[in-house]
Amino acid sequence: MEEQVGLLSGITPRGKILIIVASVLFALLVVAPQSLAPSIIVLATFNTVLLLVSRIIFDLQLSIARRLDVKRKYDVPVIEYKPLSIKLEITNPSRVPLLFVEMRDSYPPLFKLLKYSNSVVASVPARGSLVLEYVVKPVAGRHVFKGPFMVLRDPAGLFSREISLGEIEEIRVQPRLEHIRERMLLAVPTLRP
What we know:
Elements lengths: L12 H19 L5 H29 L3 E5 L4 E2 L4 E9 L5 E9 L5 E5 L2 E6 L3 E10 L3 E13 L6 E5 L4 E6 L2 H10 L7
Parallel strand pairs: 2-10
Antiparallel strand pairs: 1-3, 3-7, 4-6, 4-8, 5-7, 8-9, 8-10
C-alpha cells in the first residue's frame, strides 16, 4: 500500500474545515472593509499556524511510532479451546511520549475474545512501555495475527493515520488430547493378505 506524503496527507474532516475557514477568511480580505482587515488577518493566520503546528506534531508522533518495539507474548503450546492469555508490550525508546493513541491487536478471526479487550486508548510514555492483555479461545489449526495497529492523531484532531506496528505472525493451535484419542480409536488397522 502506498503511503501518501505531503502537508495534507492524513488530514481529517476537521482539518479540511480549518483549511476552508482559513481560505474564506483570506478571501474576505478582498471584499471586507479596511476596519475589519486586521481581525480577519489575525484569524486566518491563527488557523494556518494551527494547521502547520498540528502537522509538525503529527509528523513527530508518526516518526516515534515507527521506532516502537512491539512484542506479543503467549504461552506455548497453544491448545484448542484452552483460554489463551495474550500480552502485547509496546516500548517507546524515545524521549517523547505518544499521547492518546488507539492500539488494537488483531487476533485471528476464528478465535473468540473471552476476557478484557484487544484495544485500548492510552499513552505510551517516553522511555517506557504500554501493556495490553486479553484472553481468547483458540481453535485448532494454523492462524495468523495481523498488526497490531495504532491510530495516531495530533492534539487538535486535524490529522490521523492508522499504521501497522508489526509483522504477520503465525500461530499453531494443537487439537485437544481428547480429540486425538477419539481419532486414534476410530483408526482401525487393516491387514493386507
